[in-house]
Design goal:
Number of domains: 2
CATH topology of the largest domain: HIT family, subunit A
Shape: globular
Structural class: alpha+beta
Largest sheet: 12 strands, antiparallel
Number of helices: 7
Helix content: 10-25%
Mean pLDDT: 93
Strand order of the largest sheet: 2-3-4-8-10-12-11-16-17-15-14-13
Distance between the termini: 40 Å
Order of helices and strands: EEEEEEEEHEEHEEHHEEEHEEEEHH
CATH class of the largest domain: Alpha Beta
Oligomer: single chain
Low-confidence stretches: none
Radius of gyration: 21 Å
CATH superfamily of the largest domain: HIT-like
Length: 394
């Protein structure tokens, strides 16, 4: 392939965000959005390479089907069958493009976010570029989705984005610098606000899958953001719990955990702990002390403290064993239109690793019935994690 020429962004495509982070927006060759988030004090110049690849048309937006037994919606995204699977380092699709690697990102970057090439949820006509497929039968609101019926389908309207934490080919969020972690947090906040504003979006979910044992297919340090056209089943159950208890449920959880034996880290704005009824052998929750619905609502002080605190937490997880621990780091946010005064932004990090050489698999009781059996008392897990975190330096 030819080396693409550099092109400066227009002023309309550049925004100054918090903490000195600069956002630069552009498009990939097939029309998908690509956004660079530059570190404060970045060594990168203002110009970015143009994506000159000859790409196939974007796949049709997936269709979701309703499970009448639960009311859940299942997106059937056949295009995901063709996504990259553990490619060699020289063909890393998340590394900056080279003459021999026609990757997804044409320029060197600090943090980059782009629309997934094989999305589980795709664009609707109202937010699509000219190259995007149409949504033939989008949801008609939450009441429409709540209705039960056999054979019900809707177009999987939404968006899925890839968040590249670094141009390096290996690592994870926990291997980044405090400055880079802060840039990613600013990117999460920006994308949460932007995706929440799209028509038809009901919930936005940033997360990181880490490790082949979790199902990761790319070794590059990255996470994802899903923008759903419905409120997810997990959050629906949470809203029900809030209705059955009190609207200040998260404040009560925080007070309960801060007074108990499972606290791992506590700052001025955040507390991390092993939850009272942890399901997984390794499970960590983290809450902001102030009620905050999502990343977009965090203030500068909360973001500043989160960067080093989260890094200490992740590095403590890796200090438990001699090899990196697989995990899912799930940032739960309030739905876009309901429950925002009650559902608080919170991290739920889970790992199936129950020993150096053992994993917990979801067998009959957990997988079939949703009835969990814990392997490790949460207090014991918290004690081991505290010891590991104490040895972490940034």
């Amino acid at each position: 392939m030819n080396t693409p020429e550099l092109q400066p962004a227009t002023p309309a495509d550049v925004d100054a965000l918090g903490a000195g982070v600069v956002k630069r927006s552009t498009r990939l060759a097939d029309g998908r959005e690509l956004i660079y988030f530059d570190d404060p004090g970045t060594t990168l110049g203002p110009e970015r390479a143009v994506d000159t690849r000859d790409l196939a048309a974007r796949p049709d937006t997936a269709t979701m089907r309703q499970d009448i037994l639960t009311g859940d919606w299942v997106s059937v995204a056949a295009a995901r069958q063709h996504r990259a699977f553990l490619p060699p380092a020289e063909l890393d699709p998340l590394a900056p493009q080279t003459a021999t690697n026609p990757s997804e990102i044409p320029s060197v970057y600090d943090v980059a976010v782009f629309e997934n090439k094989s999305p589980s949820f795709g664009p609707a006509l109202t937010d699509a570029t000219d190259s995007a497929p149409a949504a033939s039968d989008p949801p008609r609101g939450l009441d429409d989705l709540a209705h039960l019926g056999l054979g019900r389908t809707r177009t999987s309207v939404g968006r899925t984005e890839v968040v590249c934490f670094s141009p390096e080919r290996t690592g994870s969020f926990g291997t980044q610098t405090v400055t880079r972690a802060r840039t990613v947090i600013e990117a999460w906040a920006d994308r949460t606000a932007a995706l929440s504003a799209l028509p038809g979006i009901e919930q936005v979910f940033p997360f990181e899958n880490r490790g082949e044992e979790i199902g990761v297919t790319l070794q590059h340090p990255h996470g994802q953001i899903y923008a759903y056209p419905y409120i997810t089943p997990r959050t629906t159950r949470l809203l029900d719990s809030i209705d059955r208890t009190a609207p200040d449920l998260f404040a009560r959880i925080l007070e309960f955990e801060q007074a108990g034996p499972r606290v791992l880290l506590q700052g001025e704005h955040w507390t991390a702990f092993v939850p009272f009824a942890a399901r997984w052998p390794l499970e960590i929750h983290m809450l902001p002390h102030r009620h905050v619905a999502d990343f977009a609502a965090l203030n500068a002080e909360e973001k500043d403290e989160l960067a080093p605190l989260y890094l200490r937490l992740l590095r403590g997880v890796d200090a438990l064993y001699d090899s990196p621990t697989p995990y899912i780091a799930a940032w739960h946010q309030a739905p876009v239109h309901v429950g925002r005064d009650a559902v608080r932004l919170n991290l739920q990090l889970t790992s199936p690793r129950r020993a150096a050489d053992k994993l917990k698999f979801l067998a009959g009781s957990e997988a079939a019935m949703g009835a969990w059996i814990g392997d490790i008392p949460p207090e014991d897990a918290a004690a081991r994690l505290r010891t590991a975190i104490e040895g972490v330096t940034l």
